[in-house]
Amino acid sequence: MRTIEWIDDKNVVKMIDQRRLPHEVVWLDYYSAQEVAQAITTMVIRGAPAIGVAAAMGMALAALESKAESHAELMADLRIAHDVLYAARPTAVNLRWGIEQQLTLAQNLEHESLPQVRAALIAQSKRMADEDVLINQTMGAWGASLLPQKVNVLHHCNTGGLAAVDWGTALGVIRSAHVGGKDIHVWVDETRPRLQGARLTAWELMQWGVPMTLIADNAAGYYMLSGQVDAVLVGADRVAANGDAVNKIGTYKLAAVAKDNNIPFYVVAPTSTVDLRTATGAQIPIEQRDPREVTHPDNDPLGIAPMGVKVGNPAFDITPQRLITAIVTEYGVVYPPFDEGLRKVVEQAEIDRANGRVVNPAVVSG
Ligand code: MRU
To answer: Using a 6 Å cutoff on CB, does residue 192 contact ligand 1?
Structure first.
């Protein structure tokens, strides 16, 4: 089951409404870039790779919606869609990546007819969805190779098929290890305030038959200190050029406790999540979300805090590269010093993409 799909006969984008899980599986239809941006902001669709593909499909919808009669007019409409989609959420760089891939393609097709440009944008967004699955499965293989035969891992947020198009990043590694016959058990952080761990990760792992235990976020330190965690696996919304990784709020605390207990801390992220234009994590914008997410968990109408209480709700935090053992990409495992290794994998990805390939596992493995 894919999180997001382009339906050809109707030119509609279908997404699973992740706000309704695990209680019901509901699919929603989107016909415009504006609607897709709204779906990203309200977290119908979420997770860095998934919103990258959603944004690319949003650009294709914008091209279809456009009444342009010349290439220049179409580009003007696509730039408007760019701004709308780009503003949907600030932190995950995959959003920018998905939009820019589409703008570049449209720009390069200056001498083609408008129907051809529109068709090419649709085709590229569908290809990006297919490639996302392949990339995740490749990262799954690299990441699983880091884990021992019997292993207890701790996982934060949701990085599964729901956060990507399918399979997942960190949860994809867990899935690959399980499918490959490893005896793997997962401590699933519930992930306050939006509970992506409790609602989405637990749902996915149970469907895949992976042994797991749901824990309150605050219990993670207890399990690490008592020797019940062999590795921590997380995804990322953006990895800076120096290896600092921005991910779901609470990730930094896990990395610090993992370091204190000599537990390897792995970040699993495709090259589309690596932002070489941003030097360190300090320059990455951190999304601040609605206080109600903290005071009214899971939309509980009564809430858990006194009315009018002052609330802070950063959606992400920065894990400094010094706390990260390795970053797993589709081009292999990158170890410190990260700056050189990350540049190598991103450059290779760009070369391969220009040649119509998305993974070449033979290229880099450390
Ligand atoms: O706010 P969310 O649910 O979109 O946050 C998602 C995460 O933080 C994930 O860990 C990240 O996108 C990497 S998942 C593939």
So the answer is: no
C-alpha 111 to ligand 1 mean position (Å):
39
Out of 132, 166, 217, 237, the active site residue is: 237
Could you list the mean pLDDT of each consecutive 10-residue stretch along the chain, which spans 366 residues? 95 98 98 98 98 98 98 98 98 96 97 98 97 96 98 98 98 98 98 98 98 98 98 98 98 98 98 98 98 95 96 98 98 97 96 85 43
Please tell me the residue having the least CA distance from ligand 1 atom 8: 248
Query: Which atom of ligand 1 is found nearest the CA of 49?
Result: 15
Sequence-distant (6+) residues with CB within 8 A of 67 are none
